[in-house]
Design goal:
CATH superfamily: Spore Coat Polysaccharide Biosynthesis Protein SpsA, Chain A
Structural class: alpha/beta
Number of domains: 1
Strand content: 25-35%
Number of helices: 6
Strand order of the largest sheet: 5-6-4-1-7-12-9-15
CATH class: Alpha Beta
Radius of gyration: 16 Å
Low-confidence stretches: none
Shape: globular
Mean pLDDT: 95
Length: about 230
């Protein structure tokens, strides 16, 4: 099974920390964030595809062509056209169902093991401030019904947190624009959900790393994820 890790963005919210470094290569607990992500992958994953862009050469130098027996492949996203666009950069390399994860969040190993049992699934977490996230609405069976992008209020508190299980049916659907020349992965899945059941799974643990403050706090949080 393959895993696609999206690691092309610069991470402007990290300010000067990413002037000369890829945000996903910033260190938490003495190691790059991406190393932690590779270490939590289930044994079923035998190939990792990194979608790289800004300072991608540093990722190549760090991990090379393999990591702990897993093949590593790289594709470049020269035009940063969103998470949906990033997945399409890897399209020709993908064989069956595949795991997708954002490069700068920490996930629970058990949650990753759980999601790969499905053909189509999204990991979600309840949040207090829905206005900062894409909020998922589900049907009675717990499948995706729709996504509301950063609503002011919502009965559902489940946010998409950047971990997905997909299959190649994803590429049958037109990418959904989210503005500024970008196309969203979650938003495209909402379109796909009209024809396919996409299971919503609630995460045990999740830690986003988007700001310098998040990075500082993650130095302690990492102990819960390794």
């Amino acid at each position: 099974m393959q895993a696609v890790i999206l690691a092309a963005g610069r991470g402007k919210r990290m300010r000067n920390l990413t002037d000369k470094n890829n945000k996903n290569m910033l260190h938490v607990g003495g190691y790059p964030i991406l190393k932690h992500k590779l270490d939590l992958l289930p044994e079923e994953i035998d190939e990792v595809i990194f979608v790289i862009g800004y300072q991608g050469n540093k990722i190549r130098r760090e991990f090379g062509n393999s990591y702990k027996g897993r093949k590593i492949t790289y594709v470049e996203q020269k035009r940063l056209n969103g998470t949906g666009g990033a997945i399409h950069r890897a399209k020709k390399l993908l064989k069956g169902k595949f795991l997708v994860m954002y490069g700068d969040d920490l996930y629970d190993k058990g949650d990753v093991q759980k999601i790969i049992k499905y053909d189509l699934a999204i990991l979600a977490k309840k949040v207090k401030d829905v206005s900062k996230f894409g909020i998922l609405k589900t049907d009675k069976k717990g499948n995706l019904k729709e996504i509301k992008e950063k609503p002011k209020r919502s009965k559902s508190k489940l946010a998409a947190i950047g971990l997905f299980m997909l299959n190649k049916n994803f590429f049958k659907f037109k990418l959904v624009s989210v503005g500024n020349g970008e196309y969203g992965l979650p938003q495209t899945l909402a379109s796909m959900a009209k024809e396919f059941d996409i299971k919503i799974l609630e995460a045990r643990r999740w830690y986003p790393i988007g700001t310098p403050e998040d990075l500082e706090n993650a130095q302690m949080a990492i102990k819960r994820f390794v």
